[in-house]
């Protein structure tokens, strides 16, 4: 899996070199997202709702929690693990001085991520605010089923809006801020400490790059289908769903992309490394996640953006932590180490987070029954509300 993804990343990088600098790095990031999109599509295709009405019940075959965790995990892996390693590795090599990056890369990326997090947060907040207000019988217009239906519509509408936001981000990067980005990337190229060695390395032609990309995509898709088929075996061995989606899957599908970013940081090309971390996070939040919601809608396997509150809070806090570290325009190995510590803490917590069939905060139905004591007056009201049987 990692070699195939690495081939895709290398071929995408060679193809990007044939393009203008800003367009090239956007294309390179997009090729990196292909692996993630294929993974999400494979998961949603394999997903089995388990009930006739499409409500998830937490039983075997329900991959919605894994997909949702993988979306959040992909963003956090880029922001905490990859960026932390970039800061740490670059800071160790240049320990005598802080690494400086341009504000246009950090501020634009962090602002877009905050907006994306807001969009991903809304369905979860909507559900959490209203889930205790649903009543099965007394208020037929606001049942639990109606709430889930509203959440699905909100998620689908939000996905469309997020795709529009992604289009605006691309247009801005290629037009309004093009000259600034181009200047920043040009400066980084001259600061590349391995520039001379890279210049003499053999390069792929445009045709060779396209052929390599096509071959890599085929192998990646094939391997991801095999990987998805083994997920249930992994879960049966005691690996929690949330840990699988939040930590393991992003590590596998983003390994090659992370190695590229870390190599850039080691070479002193910190702006490019920063873009390799923030860019894929933006694409996951504004493109990949909305896209999988719409794909699920189209194929009759609906998936919403009603994430576990635990997950969405981790995402928002991660963006805030990274944004605070990027605020001064400088970084060092200590800040990288701190990001890695945050990621490790999240991984530990995710390992102990219960599966949806045990506990959940996003409304996935479970098969666990509970005895509930209600007042006598309410019981009489419930009986009175029941339809009278016809003899």
UniProtKB/TrEMBL annotation:
Q: Name one GO cellular component term.
A: endomembrane system
The entry's localization annotation reads:
Endomembrane system
Q: Which GO terms describe its biological process?
A: intracellular calcium ion homeostasis
For this protein, the record's Gene3D superfamilies field holds:
NCX, central ion-binding region (1.20.1420.30)
Q: Which UniProt keywords apply?
A: Ion transport, Membrane, Transmembrane, Transmembrane helix, Transport
Tell me the protein's name.
Related to vacuolar Ca2+/H+ antiporter
Q: Which domain of life is it from?
A: Eukaryota
Enumerate the GO terms in the molecular function aspect. calcium:proton antiporter activity
Q: Where is the Sodium/calcium exchanger membrane region domain?
A: 2-173, 209-351
Task: Extract the PANTHER family matched here.
Answer: VACUOLAR CALCIUM ION TRANSPORTER (PTHR31503:SF14)
- Which family is this protein grouped under? Belongs to the Ca(2+):cation antiporter (CaCA) (TC 2.A.19) family.
How does it sit in the bilayer?
Multi-pass membrane protein
Any one Pfam family match given in the protein's UniProt record, by short name: Na_Ca_ex
* Regions crossing the membrane: 22-45, 66-91, 151-172, 210-228, 285-303, 309-326, 333-353
């Amino acid at each position: 899996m990692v070699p195939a993804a690495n081939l895709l990343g290398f071929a995408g990088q060679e193809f990007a070199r044939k393009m203008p600098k800003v367009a090239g790095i956007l294309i390179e990031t997009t090729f990196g997202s292909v692996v993630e999109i294929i993974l999400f599509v494979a998961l949603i295709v394999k997903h089995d709702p388990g009930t006739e009405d499409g409500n998830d019940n937490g039983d075997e075959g329900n991959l919605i929690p894994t997909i949702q965790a993988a979306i959040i995990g992909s963003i956090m892996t880029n922001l905490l693990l990859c960026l932390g390693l970039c800061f740490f590795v670059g800071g160790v090599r240049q320990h005598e001085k802080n690494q400086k990056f341009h504000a246009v890369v950090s501020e634009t990326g962090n602002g877009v991520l905050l907006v994306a997090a807001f969009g991903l947060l809304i369905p979860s907040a909507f559900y959490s605010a209203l889930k205790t207000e649903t009543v099965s019988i007394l208020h037929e217009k606001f049942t639990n089923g109606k709430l889930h239906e509203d959440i699905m519509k909100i998620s689908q509408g939000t996905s469309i809006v997020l795709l529009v936001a992604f289009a605006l981000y691309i247009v801005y990067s290629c037009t309004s801020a093009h000259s600034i980005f181009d200047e920043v990337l040009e400066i980084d190229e001259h600061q590349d400490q391995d520039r001379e060695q890279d210049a003499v390395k053999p390069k792929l032609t445009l045709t060779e790059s396209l052929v390599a990309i096509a071959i890599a995509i085929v192998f990646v898709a094939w391997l991801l289908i095999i990987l998805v088929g083994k997920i249930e075996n992994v879960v049966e061995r005691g690996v929690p769903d949330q840990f699988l989606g939040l930590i393991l899957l992003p590590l596998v599908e983003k390994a090659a992309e992370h190695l590229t970013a870390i190599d850039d940081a080691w070479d002193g090309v910190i702006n490019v490394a920063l873009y390799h971390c923030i860019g894929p996070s933006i694409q996951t939040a504004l493109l990949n996640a909305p896209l999988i919601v719409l794909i699920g809608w189209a194929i009759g396997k609906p998936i919403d953006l009603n994430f576990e509150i635990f997950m969405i809070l981790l995402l928002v806090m991660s963006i805030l932590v990274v944004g605070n570290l990027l605020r001064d325009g400088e970084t060092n190995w200590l800040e990288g180490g701190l990001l890695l510590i945050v990621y490790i803490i999240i991984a530990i917590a995710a390992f102990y987070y219960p599966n949806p069939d045990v506990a959940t905060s996003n409304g996935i139905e479970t098969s666990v029954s509970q005895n509930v004591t209600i007042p006598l007056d309410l019981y009489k009201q419930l009986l009175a509300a029941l339809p009278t049987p016809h003899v």
